Amino acid sequence: MRIRYHLLFATSVAMSLCSATGLLAADAKVKCPVKGTTFQPTATSPSVMVNGQKLSFCCAECPKAFAAHPEKYVKKAGDCPIEKGHAAQVSPALRTVVNENLYYFCCAGCPEQFTASVPTSGMKLQDPVTHQEFAVTKDSPHTEVQGQLYFFESKDTLAKFDPKTAVVYGK
Fold first, then answer.
1. How many Cβ atoms from other residues are within 10 Å of residue 63's Cβ?
2. Phi and psi angles of residue 139, each rounded to the nearest 5 degrees, phi first
3. How far apart are the C-alpha atoms of 104 and 69, rounded to whole Å?
4. Residue in 60, 52, 10 with CA at minimum distance from that of residue 34
5. Which of 42, 68, 137, 148 has the maximal Cβ count within 10 Å?
6. For the chain, which residues make up each domain, given as ranges?
């Protein structure tokens, strides 16, 4: 049952990516969620992940405006990462932030279930200090900053983490 749940979890995140905006070709133009400007994102364009979907910003100032009021700029969040096939509701009450990735859910029970499942999910995240991708395990060091979760690839990177650098969404 546990394996099936994790498989469903991974599939729902992948489906969210495809269903809400579709996969973009590497050379596709996108619309900045803050300014509405159509532009060609590059590898260095600022971005944020929302339910597995990459939202790119046209300039360095847009992520700050987005972080202050993400629900103002997220129009659709795709499927709920827990209840596959149920639309995620764009609401601060139904939002969880893990390593500065935003997750929206369909109902009040899903955020808690999601948060509890992260340590055993095998989810791939970027370490907040090294920016290296790693798979979360039950032994992954973690901390909370203003209600947002941060997982690290090692105790060393957790020790180097400066909570003052954390992006706090909608606070």
1. 19
2. -95, 0
3. 14
4. 60
5. 148
6. 2-165
The CA distance from 170 to 27, in Å, is 31
pLDDT tens readout for residues 61-77: 999 999 999 999 998 99
* Rounded-to-integer distance, Cα 103 and Cα 107, Å: 12
Residue that has been written with the tokens 């989810």 in this structure? 123
First-to-final CA distance of the chain:
37
Is the pTM of the predicted complex or chain greater than 0.90?
Answer: no
The two three-digit tokens of residue 99, written as one number: 């390593």
Q: What is the pLDDT of residues 109-146, one digit of tens each?
A: 999 999 999 999 999 999 999 999 999 999 999 999 99
Mark 15-37 as b/e (b = at least 16 C-beta within 10 Å): bbbebbbeeeeeeeebebbbeee
Which tokens in the block code for residue 138?
């039950």
- Structure token pair of residue 21: 């905006």
- Cα separation of 145 and 166, whole Å? 7
CB 76 within 8 A of CB 20: yes
